[in-house]
Amino acid sequence: MAAQPIPLVAWLDVLPVLLCIAGAALLPLLNRRSALQAIVCGVILVAVLASDVALLAHVLADGPLAMTMGNWLPPFGISFVADAVGTGFALASAMVAFAVLVALQGGAEAVAKRAGIYPLLLLLLAGASGAALTGDLFNLYVWFEVMLAAAIGLVAFAGGPLQIEAAFKYGIINLVATTLLLAAIGLLYGLLGTLNMADIAMASGKADGAALTAVAALLVLALSIKAAAFPVNAWLPATYHAPPAAISALLGGIPTKIAVYALIRVVVMLLPTARETLGPVIYGVAILTALVGPLMALGETRLRRAIGFLLVGGIGIALIGIAQNHDLVLSGAISYAISSMLVIAGLYLVAGLIEQAAGAVDIGGMGGLYAANTPLSLLFGALVLSLAGIPPFLGFWPKLLLLQGLIEQADWPLTFTVLVNSLLTIVIGARLWSRIFWRPRAEPVAQARGYGGAVLLTGTIVLLGLAPGILLQTSLAAGRLLLAPAGYIAAVGLAP
Amino acid sequence: MTETVVAIVAGLFLAAGFYLLLSRALLRMLIGVVLIGNGINLMILVAGRLRSTVPPILPTAAPPANPLPQALILTAIVIGFALFVALAVLATRAWGAFKADTSDDLRSTEPRVIVARPPLEY
Question: Is B2 at the interface with chain A, CB within 8 A?
């Protein structure tokens, strides 16, 4: 195949990552002027959002869009491939990052005044967008490390003893996870002789089944640690409550869901033969994660730790898409992961406002916030209902797809898991809500400041819940393409 | 032959690394992470086949060495070292904050003693 110049539209593939990295390099030059940094960061994030939206529109209209670095034709060069699933996750990441930027302004968070948080925010988004858009497995590992480096910095950012300790724990466990990911990718390269995702999707069917399953198991373990699936989830609730709430929202929204994305991409699209063998394991992990998370949240009294456990439960629901081989279930899981990025980030932001108003982090010290902070109770209620999957909020549609697919397959254990997870989420939400807002309280309540980010996210969730077409269209296209990746392989320039 | 030897060495690195990682001392955990990283780098070198030492630049009669694993390892070394240094700084700061260098004594994110009992009303 003769090399042709890269078409202009293909540059859209790298634009989100390019803008983030350029911004992260530019911001430190503004030398501690945090107000100016916030404005420049906002301009960059709007540009990233615009390019993600343009990319999604292009991908939904014309199918996957590939660009290979330096036009070293695949499988030799590193490819970036935007398809429906990757672009969906990249867009949701950018939305979370933008909402967190808004939440940092006008809020009571002291960290917002410190220059340095904005470059880290952009680097985290660069890692997430890169991981979602890359078409090369080793490159995926590099983006995970970029995301990890930024996340360690963000957890430790406030600099108190609590944050230092959380950052160390977070850093060690996630560094081990990415190192295992590197090992699995190295072994996969030794087995198949290629790192290009499209090439792997073609070659994996012919490889030695036993060796491939072993490598896939290592990949699944590494990515499950990053996603906080059940037996390896203990690090998440231990660390995500330590940094300031805006940073919790950023971490709760982006990195774990990108790990879920990588799991779906690798297991479903790249290694379908290994998926058949590993299926029962993932099936059990999905059920346990979806039930253990909410059960732990039920017994938790620190608000943001409880949200961390709810996050873990949501990871289990998203893993159902891998556990059950059905296109509707896969689409449901993808749309669930994307929607819960927004919902969990929103919950963390609202939790920050609640802590600020109540002056406590434990629900034992909260209560009586309803009179002084009525809007807060509405935001919290809407987000909890969305997480549980109650119409008309965004969380309803993914669960509808999941249940429709699972009932079609007559898979009653997973159907039951989804329903029990929703029920437990409502119980937890109702308990927290009545405890935080309705319980009588003698001492006066402060008024929370800095609603912007939480209102933005909740508004998006309500709007998208009323007009779910775009999310459903994206996830249905994503599910179809992941199960039959001929279009993806052709877009990269390889013949299936 | 060489591949077997290097594979066994990589395995020893990994075993030693995971043994150290199971320790409660932060410093040992850090050294364990470094050993695991290096063991995996060796593993990638073997995965790319150790068939020759001829540089893959000009066409020669002998088969050239595979350059790709070396590029991968270089990337992994740089990233691994940077993150190791960041974690070493955090371990030092943890010593400053808690006067503790074992994970047993780092319990502020997960309090051992539950201060507030779960509320009974509602």
Answer: no
Indicate whether B57 belongs to any domain: yes
Does residue B116 lie in a domain region?
Answer: no
- Using the beta-carbon criterion (under 8 Å), do B83 and A148 form an inter-chain contact? yes
Quote ipTM for the complex: 0.92
Q: Which of A164, A187, A188, A235 is the best substitution to test chain B (most B C-beta atoms within 10 A)?
A: A164
- pLDDT tens digit at each of 496 positions of chain A: 445 777 888 888 999 999 999 999 999 898 778 888 899 999 999 999 999 999 999 999 998 999 888 878 777 889 999 999 999 999 999 999 999 999 998 766 777 777 789 999 999 999 999 999 999 999 999 999 999 999 999 999 988 889 999 999 999 999 999 999 999 999 999 999 899 999 999 988 888 889 999 999 999 999 999 999 989 999 999 899 999 999 999 999 999 999 999 999 999 999 999 888 999 999 999 999 999 999 999 888 889 999 999 999 999 999 999 998 899 999 999 999 999 999 999 999 999 999 988 888 888 778 788 888 888 999 999 999 999 999 889 999 999 999 999 999 999 999 999 999 999 999 999 989 988 888 887 777 788 888 889 999 999 999 999 999 999 999 999 999 999 999 999 988 887 6
Of the candidates A138, A187, A438, which has its C-beta nearest B72's C-beta? A138
Tell me whether A433 touches chain B (CB under 8 Å): no
The enclosing domain of B70 has a CATH number of 1.10.287
Q: Which residues contact A18 (CB under 8 A, 6 or more apart)?
A: none
B27 is in which domain, residue-wise? 2-105
Q: How far is CA B58 from CA A70, A371, A379, B64, B67, in A?
A: 21, 78, 65, 9, 13
Q: Which H helix or E strand runs over A274?
A: helix A272-298
Looking at the structure of chain B, the number of domains it has is: 1
* Cβ atoms within 10 Å, residue B51: 13
B-facing residues of A in 286-305 (CB < 8 A) are 299, 301
B22 within some domain: yes
Question: pTM for the full model?
Answer: 0.94
Taking CA atoms, B89 is separated from A269, A425, B36, B82, in Å, by: 39, 39, 19, 11
CB contact under 8 A, B40 and A365: no
Do the Cβ atoms of A94 and A48 come closer than 8 Å?
yes
CB contact under 8 A, B43 and A187: yes
Q: Is B6 on the interface with A (CB under 8 A)?
A: no
The Cβ of residue A57 has, within 10 Å, a number of other Cβ atoms equal to 13
Cβ within 8 Å, pair B108-A161: yes
Check: CB of residue A66 under 8 Å from CB of residue A491: yes
Instruction: Tell whether B74 is covered by a domain.
Output: yes
